[in-house]
Amino acid sequence: MTMNASILDRPLRLSDRVSSQIEAWISERALAPGTQLPTEKVLCERFGVSRAVVREAISRLKAEGCVETRQGLGAFVAAAPGEGSFKLMREVDPDAGDAADIFELRCMVESGAAELAALRRTEADLLRIGRALEDMEQALVTGDGGAVTDDAFHLAIAAASGNRQLERFLAYMGRQFSASRVPTWSEDGHRGGRAAEAQAEHRRIFEAIRSGDAVEAGVAARVHLTAAARRLGVVLRRPEQNMDTTDRVARHGEVA
Amino acid sequence: MTMNASILDRPLRLSDRVSSQIEAWISERALAPGTQLPTEKVLCERFGVSRAVVREAISRLKAEGCVETRQGLGAFVAAAPGEGSFKLMREVDPDAGDAADIFELRCMVESGAAELAALRRTEADLLRIGRALEDMEQALVTGDGGAVTDDAFHLAIAAASGNRQLERFLAYMGRQFSASRVPTWSEDGHRGGRAAEAQAEHRRIFEAIRSGDAVEAGVAARVHLTAAARRLGVVLRRPEQNMDTTDRVARHGEVA
DNA sequence: GGTCATCTACTTGTCTGACAAGCTCGAATT
DNA sequence: AATTCGAGCTTGTCAGACAAGTAGATGACC
């Protein structure tokens, strides 16, 4: 006959106590994601335990998702409990290759968002997207506030897709990239016609979503992102096959 | 010159692999709560690692809530890993339709990854994908280790896409979703033919990537993910238009 | 024979020391 | 000045040892 009540009396393992204290320490100071934790050695001295115990404690925090470790660097706060998501994708360098990679990724996901938006958009969604479009139209005249509204436009489409994961992801990526939209809407961008060009692409996307044509919406989104990359001078690898693949197929579909 | 030595060779911590394999092992055999796990010593010999690694792996499973340990007694299955991994999904969003959202998102991104992989795969990539495929083939016979290799298969494709942002994103999503692959490779999955069905879809994807047919690779990936969702009983909203959109278009492209 | 203390074998928990792998930064080299 | 390379840090892994806790066999005692 086993004493099941012993679960409550069970001896507290050292690693449990240590992990609790570290977690409390993070919470109390409200450490921002990315903050570096003390090294294992320091933690050993502070808690008076061996490194094995500290490692098990940190291992537990890793499993809970609030700590990340990188060999040779250290341990870092990953995210406050409950909000861990795409945080893993931080530290994106606006470097050369990364920019192309991100454009490719956005092309896949945003075209998908446009397709879903065409299928599921509500009247409220259309109103929101349309308002962003009008604001950009005005920005074309006044030459002001284009970049901000551009963000709003793409976010509104993501929201209209009805897929909350997609919306969160695109919101994140959009934030990463809002800086790159600036050149399009800069003084130079207006003069060089880049702003007007982008706006024409935006109108095509909006029309497709309004009319409920998913295929056309996806194509329009892909065209827009490919053109945006070109306008920013980002060189897409194997451009002749790369992002045009589905586009080309879709055109055949249209013709057929 | 960028080192394409790639992400997956590095962040492969031993303890992560061991914990994944133990978790998959529990899932595939559908071990009842209370079942005793092999001792640490046995696990060390079986995986060929030190006790520290095994202990970290088990520590992770403890944190996930699917394993409990008692000093002097051993380690025991606490709850079905399905519930334990639901905890990971809970972090994303406790909503019901969340699984469908994630499937949609994965469908977009993984099909894109397959297309890019078909265009850019190196011989080393093909070797790695092929090895994962063979491992799954063997898992079909032995009934063991299918879920882990399934992860490896999709990650290898992501790596072959040559897009590091994509690879990181899919690695993240894969971790969130590896639990959902378990039913396919469980005992029940083998008996019901779900494993064989999935494997056939995998072969189609691999063949397309090997032959460099981007369109076919994308189609095969979309078919696979749609089927996977169906096998798991996930209801995709508006299935008749939803994920089939680009698929239908691509087929027209093939015919044309 | 039955009861109880003890002893043994085995498990997980903790400690220690060492080396490997990966990263940062600055000095030395070209 | 730009580049290379190594010292010095970090975490990751290994090996062996002992402490603490448990179950079951052993054996003594009634």
How would you sum up this structure, described in words?
2 copies of one chain form a homodimer. Chain A is mainly alpha-helical. Chain A has 2 domains: 75 residues, Arc Repressor Mutant, subunit A; 164 residues, Four Helix Bundle (Hemerythrin (Met), subunit A) (Up-down Bundle). In chain A, 69% of the residues lie in helices and 3% in strands. Chain A is built from 12 helices and 2 strands. Chain A has a two-stranded antiparallel ribbon. In chain A, strand 1 and strand 2 form a beta hairpin. In chain A, helix 6 runs antiparallel to helix 7 and helix 11 crosses helix 12. The radius of gyration of chain A is 25 Å and the shape is elongated. The first copy, chain A, starts with 5 loop residues before the first helix and ends with a helix. Chains A and B meet through helix 4, helix 5, helix 8, helix 11 and helix 12 of A and helix 3, helix 4, helix 5, helix 8 and helix 11 of B.
Layout of strands and helices, then pairs:
The structure is a homodimer of 256-residue chains.
Chain A: H1 6-9, H2 14-29, H3 40-47, H4 51-64, E1 67-70, E2 74-77, H5 96-120, H6 123-142, H7 146-160, H8 164-185, H9 187-191, H10 194-211, H11 214-231, H12 244-255
Helix pairs in contact in A: 2-4, 3-4, 5-7, 5-8, 5-10, 5-11, 6-7, 6-10, 7-8, 10-11, 11-12
Chain A binds a DNA duplex (30 and 30 nucleotides) through helix 4.
